[in-house]
Amino acid sequence: MQNDDVTGDPRIAPTDFENENRRPFLHNLLCLTSVSSVVQPKRAILLTMQATTQQPTAFHLMTKPRGAICNLDCKYCYFLSKEALYPGSKFRMSDNLLEEYIRQYIEAQQVNDINFAWQGGEPTLMGLDFFKQAVRYQQKHRRPGMRITNALQTNAVTLDDDWCEFFAANDFLLGVSLDGPADAHDYYRVDKGGNPTFHKVMTGIRLLQKHNAEYNILTTVHAANEGQGTRVYKFLRDEVGTKFMQFIPIVERDNDTGYQEGDQVTDRSITAAGYGQFLIDMYEEWVRHDVGKVFVQIFDIALAAWTGAPPGLCIFDETCGLALAMEHNGDVFSCDHYVEPDYKLGNIMDVPLSEIVVMDEQVAFGQAKHDTLPQYCLDCEVKFVCNGGCPKNRFIETPDGEPGLNYLCAGYRAFFNHVRPTMNFMAGELAQRHPPANVMLEMARYDAELERAFAAAGRNDPCPCGSGL
Predict the structure, then answer these.
(1) Using a CB cutoff of 8 Å and minimum separation of 24, what contacts does 235-241 make?
(2) What is the pLDDT of residue 132?
(3) pLDDT reported for residue 46
(4) Which of the chain's ends, N or C, has fewer CB atoms near its CB within 10 Å?
(5) How would you classify the pairing of strands 147-154 and 113-118?
(6) Assign residue 319 a region: left if phi > 0, alpha if psi is -120 to 50, beta otherwise?
């Protein structure tokens, strides 16, 4: 399982930006003029809503039927240590709990499109029969007119034809963990014997493609692939063949508990500047060649913000608190990144899920994302899209010593400021109901003009790039 920055991985429940066909926000906008609209893209990454003291119309629950049990031993995984919370457990969700969870989750949602999200550990270690039973219970308890889908995050190592046939037949969306080419992926993503896993993962992806099962690629950005944004992006696009990607920064606290505490990070963690540059390097390739063809989560979010829409992803929303996590025994926690004793809200066998999600402590947890934002962030020119980032990473100080700044602040700020001109252009095109893919023509003109300027520049002339050097 990845150490990711969105609430519970696979982060692949439908987003606020999707219509009834669950098309990603950017794709919907492109379809205004039928650009790249022939093939319906994969579902986007996450359902989030702002915290409220009243019953929400919808919320997200990341369910871990096998707990922290996994067949891999990824060095940066933040969840493997959670096994210590349940000494002596068999780490298998019972059939009774499975049905009760499905019944309560459906009953608590006040919308007609419902997504069940499964994670771990490695959820496929429950076996295929478990998920067949889950689908049966979903159909048993669904309301008339309700559409139910499933999302599952996997390392893909266990997948075979039977799994992939099932996923395709039952509208599952898979989030597959792949950190880039073999050298970047295998640096941290190894099995229990320390052996590389890249080729096994690629075998699983090819099986998903063979059976036309929907999948996204989730790539973590860490010390081993820092500085390789363009290479990783091109690999996923050209060699893997995926059109739907999300990139999650590894920010791993250096402590002995595995909890969100302390202000030091491990050597595996990405630097803030490195993450920003990784995103910039990918964006420069994407904005020239792939707008409307390849969908990258953070680019989609940025364009939404530039058009005045809410971010639609918990880490960039003003508040959080409606993306919870449930362990194999029914214990519910405030967030996938806060599966810790202090953030345990209750057990669904004792307290209904509809009550847990509006508990005072959970509402306060979500509201704190807004209320604890430092003045440095409130004054920031990119707050409208960043909103301080995920609370789990807010453990450094601002330049004037105020606590609560996001560890990744410098990277986010560099990236969002870098994309501002082209985001403004695309937002302007959308306002006129033109496809944002037109930005690629503008970039081609810009590059041609810059090339001519370089060719004409004299030895002692200022650099045409605008640096003034």
Answers:
(1) 235/180, 235/181, 236/178, 236/180, 237/290, 237/294, 239/181, 240/178, 240/202, 240/205, 241/209
(2) 98
(3) 32
(4) C
(5) parallel
(6) beta
Respond yes or no on whether the N-terminal peptide bond of residue 466 is cis (omega within 30° of 0). Answer: no
- Locate 428 and state its tokens: 């302007």
In the chain the first and final C-alpha atoms are separated, in Å, by: 46
336 is known as an active-site residue? yes
pLDDT at 128 over 60: yes
Which one of the listed residues 73, 336, 350, 400 is annotated catalytic?
336
* Among candidate residues 401, 358, 371, the one with its CA nearest the CA of residue 49: 358
Average pLDDT (18-43) is: 32
CA atoms in the 13 A half-sphere facing the CB of 127? 7
- Output the six-digit token pair for 358: 């509006």
Residue bearing the bigger pLDDT, 381 or 23: 381
Q: 405 — phi, psi (to 5°)?
A: -80, 145
Mean pLDDT of the chain: 88
Residue entry with tokens 């990070």: 265
pTM over 0.70: yes
Q: In this structure, are residues 264 and 254 in contact, taking their beta carbons and an 8 Å threshold?
A: yes
| 3-state per-residue secondary structure call for the chain | CCCCCCCCCCCCCCCCCCCCCCCCHHHHHHHHHCCCCCCCCCCCCCCCCCCCCCCCCCCEEEECCCCCCCCECCCCCCCHHHHHHCCCCCCCCCHHHHHHHHHHHHHHCCCCEEEEEECCCCHHHHCHHHHHHHHHHHHHHCCCCCEEEEEEEECCCCCCHHHHHHHHHCCEEEEEECCCCHHHHCCCCEECCCCECHHHHHHHHHHHHHCCCEEEEEEEECCCCCCCHHHHHHHHHHHHCCCEEEEEECCCECCCCCCCCCCCECCCCCCHHHHHHHHHHHHHHHHHHCCCCCEEHHHHHHHHHHCCCCCCCHHHCCCCCCEEEECCCCEEECCHHHCCHHHEEEECCCCCHHHHCCCHHHHHHHHHHHHCCCHHHHCCCCHHHHCCCCHHHCCEECCCCCEEECCCHHHHHHHHHHCHHHHHHHHHHHHCCCCHHHHHHHHHHHHHHHHHHHHHCCCCCCCCCCCCC
Q: Using CA atoms, how far apart are residues 310 and 319, in angstroms rounded to an integer?
A: 11
pLDDT category at 411 given cuts 50, 70, 90 is very high
Cβ proximity of 416 and 382 under 8 Å: yes
144-176 pLDDT, tens digit each: 999 999 999 999 999 999 999 999 999 999 999
Tokens 């081609």, residue located: 444
Other beta carbons less than 10 A from residue 212's beta carbon: 10
- Residue 380: name the closest of 417, 349, 346, 348 by CA: 417
